[in-house]
Amino acid sequence: MSEENAYNYPLDTEHWSTDEIIDVVNFYKLVEQAYEKGVKQYDLMQAYTKFKQVVPSKSEEKKLGSQFEKESGYSLYQIVKEARNTDSNEVIKV
Q: Mind telling me which InterPro entries this protein's record contains (predicted)?
């Protein structure tokens, strides 16, 4: 996708605060960046930690991940899996 994506991020605007929405959107943007340009593992994992504070439930994470992948073609699961197997000072590019 391009800088201006043509899809909607899956968000729970009824239950999340503005700060929580910002944290989730930042994580989604880093996932996109990992696919398009590359992103530092440390930055992605920091964003994932904040994402998990907003979405602690594994089932909710899977639901959002599925919606995100359907919209964007990018897998949250695959990028986090890759990040967990990468050193913190390395760049992740899928």
A: BH2638-like_sf, UPF0223
In the chain, the amino acid numbered 60 is E
How many CB atoms are closer than 10 A to CB 1?
A: 13
How many CB atoms sit inside 10 A of residue 29's CB?
A: 15
Residue 91: in which H helix or E strand, if any? strand 91-92
Can you list the pairs that 47-54 forms with residues at least 24 positions away whose Cβ atoms lie under 8 Å?
Answer: 47/23, 48/80, 48/83, 50/23, 50/26, 51/23, 51/24, 51/27, 53/23, 54/16, 54/20, 54/23, 54/24
Residue spans of the domains in the chain: they are 18-92
User: What's domain 18-92's superfamily in CATH?
Assistant: BH2638-like (1.10.220.80)
Q: What pTM value is reported for the model?
A: 0.91
User: How big is the chain, counted in residues?
Assistant: 94
